[in-house]
Automatic annotation (TrEMBL):
Organism: Plastoroseomonas arctica
GO molecular function: ATP binding; ATP hydrolysis activity
Entry GO CC: plasma membrane
Regions annotated as coiled coil: none
Gene3D superfamilies reported in the protein's UniProt record: P-loop containing nucleotide triphosphate hydrolases
Location of the ABC transporter domain: 2-251
Keyword Nucleotide-binding: yes
PROSITE patterns to which the protein is assigned, alphabetical: ABC_TRANSPORTER_2 (PS50893)
One Pfam assignment: ABC_tran
Protein name as it appears in the record: ABC transporter ATP-binding protein
The keyword Nucleotide-binding is annotated on this UniProt entry: yes
Key words of the record: ATP-binding, Nucleotide-binding, Transport
Amino acid sequence: MLEAVDVSLRFGGVRALTDVSFAVRRGEVFSIIGPNGAGKTSMVNCISGRYRPTEGAIRYRGQDVTRLRPNRRAAIGIGRTFQNLALFGHMTVLDNIMVGRHHLMKRGFLPGMLYWFGGAQREEIEHRRAVEAIIDFLEIQQVRKTIAGTLPYGLRKRVELARAMALQPQLILLDEPMAGMNLEEKEDMARYILDLNEEWGMTVLMIEHDMGVVMDISHRVMVLDFGRKIAEGTPEAVLADPQVRRAYLGEADETIPEAVPA
């Protein structure tokens, strides 16, 4: 589904990523973890198109997308959420989610004329139906007409996920989807992510600091440290890796606490 090949990213003399390579398989939950400043968000920004790698390539479904703009990547099936919420705070929840349908709507002068004469109402109904299905899935019916900026943080995180889902992506990039949430909210979000993967058929690439969640729901995990990949594999294998223990704990003989089953 996705392949990063020797991706490096520099900002002046600062190296955010150095020769990072990995592949995400279709239908899996793939997590990127690492200490603060390890380059996790930089990697996701390279995949989504916010950053262009200094070196290396990003391939999506066999196509080189390294130079594609973010809107073109969205159009071919890559959606994302942001670590810092990027909602339109003055708009309702419903309108924020509808923004995610924008690239699926007809556009241009001539198509627009034909559109108004030949089925505007039908298309509007189809988009509304798709959005309502997402609202029901994420259990945010009660806030659908609420101004997004007035919602509690946990609900705003859910609305951001809803907008990314509205793109109908085949690959969804989740940048710390559970940051700032309480335990109950994290459990709900973990369930939504699993259902996205298993029921909605989306491949998930996730950055997350909650090690318990990562180990519970991920098929495979990659670890970054100072912009370099130091480990990749199943959650169990990654936890047992001495380099990972050093990166997180500073000592090779300590262990990361085991994840508590949900």
